[in-house]
Amino acid sequence: MTKVSMTVNGKAVAGEVEGRTLLSAFLREGLGLTGTHVGCDTSQCGACVVHVDGKPVKSCTVFAQDVAGAQVKTIEGMANPDGSLGVLQQAFQDHHGLQCGFCTPGMVMSSAALLAENPKPTEAEVRHYLEGNICRCTGYHNIVKAVLSASGQSVAAE
Fold first, then answer.
1. In angstroms, rounded to a whole number, what is the distance separating the alpha carbons of residues 50 and 60?
2. pLDDT tens for each residue of 95-141
3. What CA–CA distance (Å, rounded) separates 49 from 10?
4. Which pTM was predicted?
5. d(CA 89, CA 18)
6. Which residue from 12, 28, 39, 57 puts its CA 20 to 30 A from 67's CA?
7. For the packed helices 87-94 and 104-117, what is the interaxial angle rounded to 10 degrees?
8. Sheet strand arrangement including 11-17
9. How confident is the model at residue 155 (pLDDT cuts 50, 70, 90)?
10. Sign of the Cα pseudo-torsion (103, 34, 82, 50, in order)
């Protein structure tokens, strides 16, 4: 067992992990942050995306010990300080960018990374950036609208 320490959603955390413990498992089982979903365990679906030192990472492909000392942000850290939905989360709700909700945490985290890199993406750029995230319910149209809306761009009502 190895002791790991990191900052998760602005709070210092520590725990004992086996060398093979994935970051997704540490977050979900070790810290009780179950918003990070695990869909495939092979980095294909994107449901497990979190930010590590500001970069989007599929947490099912990273060992917890490899991010020791890092700043990690999960979907739970996307809310406003008062607990209300953050801008991107609210846009997903307002534009019906979710159905079953399983992919939503990864979609929000990937979208947040995109908006940090490119504050005013085009529709094509949003679609390209989200290629690593699979959604079986929405057809992506409303997810793209949500991201564009969160970026401050007007979105046609349909």
1. 10
2. 999 999 999 999 999 999 999 999 999 999 999 999 999 998 888 99
3. 17
4. 0.94
5. 34
6. 39
7. 120
8. 11-17, 2-8, 71-73, 49-52, 55-58
9. confident
10. negative
